[in-house]
Amino acid sequence: MDLGLVGKRAIVCAASKGLGRASAMALAREGVAVVINARGAAALEETAAEIRAETGAAVTAVAGNITTEAGRAAVLAACPEPDILVNNAGGPPAGDFRNWSREDWLRALDANMLTPIALIRAVIDGMIARRFGRIVNITSGSVKSPIPSLGMSNGARAGLTGFVAGLARQVARHNVCINNLLPGPFLTDRLRSNAVELAEASGRTPEQVLEDRIRANPAARLGDPAEFGFACAFLCSAHAGYIVGQNLLLDGGAYNSSMG
Ligand code: NAP
After folding, report:
1. Of 27, 81, 83, 91, which residue has the fewest beta carbons closer than 10 angstroms?
2. Which long-range contacts does 146-155 make (Cβ < 8 Å, 24+ apart)?
3. CA-based angle 211:217:221, to the nearest 5?
4. Which of 82, 94, 50 shows the shortest CA–CA distance to 191?
């Protein structure tokens, strides 16, 4: 299937590893010129080289913290008129909400709500003028089914979801589509480090923690980040113009419900 994306330009945030990297790889495979970002320059350059080698696409690496004004300005300077924006950042830490200060909350809100909104604000009028735009926010299955230890993630991402639900319906008439992708358990560094923390707290090994997740999942496995990338590329495609304001869960069926 030709996704109709040859020659488009994308910004993919937090993309040296994991779900962001897989999204950038899938877009590059479709002929999209990608600007990728992460804080660590060495890993980011390595990923950029791998994407170039595998896809032949133009890949620009912009190192910086996407949750800062300076980080966002650098990314936007490298790609001032993107056709595609994939919002992503690290998730907030786990813990007991009694221990979280106002500053902790503001960091979570900055990373998982206000940064995506700031980037959307910077690019959306150009997308409207050019009559093509695709924005995908990488959020979490925790938006639909809260994870008790990840209260800051549950809260901040729900804020973004509510905002986007309204905005998506205001811009869809211009062929600008905003949707959210909600990962369940995908085998990335983030999932591995969560497993180490959970193992320490529960007296199990990280392998046992992951085994339990696999056993509990209807698909009987963890997600492959490449599967996430393909879903992201489809949502960014020319054919996805009637998918508006949706929250698409990719979790192997872990969220138990008859519909929605
Ligand atoms: P990952 O494998 O740990 O990769 C995170 C990527 O984001 C890295 O490239 C990291 O590079 C970059 N990054 C982190 N903070 C950044 C910042 N402030 N500015 C720029 N880049 C930043 O994580 P992942 O599993 O792909 O997760 C991506 C998002 O999905 C996270 O928000 C996570 O909470 C959420 N999520 C993941 C899962 C899952 O199962 N994997 C499930 C639900 C939700 P640097 O560290 O070098 O900056």
Report:
1. 81
2. 149/94, 149/95, 149/96, 150/91, 150/92, 150/94, 151/95, 151/97, 151/100, 152/92, 152/93, 152/97, 152/100, 152/104, 152/105, 152/108, 153/91, 153/92, 153/108, 153/112, 155/105, 155/108
3. 60
4. 94
> Ligand 1 centre from 202 Cα, in Å?
24
Contact at 8 Å (CB) between 134 and 82? no
Confidence band, pLDDT 50/70/90 cuts, at residue 255: very high
State how far the Cα of 146 lies from the Cα of 154, in Å rounded to an integer: 6
List, chain by chain if needed, residues with CB within 6 Å of any ligand 1 atom: 14-20, 37-40, 43, 65-67, 88-91, 111, 138, 140-141, 183, 185-186, 188-191
Q: Which residue's CA is the nearest one to ligand 1's atom 44? A: 140
Q: What number of other Cβ atoms are within 10 A of residue 121's Cβ?
A: 10
Q: Are 96 and 150 in contact (CB under 8 A)?
A: no
pLDDT score of 231 more than 90 = yes
Taking the C-alpha atoms of residue 230 and residue 40, their distance in angstroms, rounded to an integer, is 25
Phi, psi of 163 (to 5 degrees): -60, -45
What DSSP element (H or E) covers 197? helix 189-202
Q: How far is CA 234 from CA 25, 43, 134, 190, in A?
A: 13, 26, 10, 24
State the pTM of this model: 0.98
Tokens describing residue 232:
């992201």
The answer to whether 108 and 152 are in contact (CB under 8 A) is yes
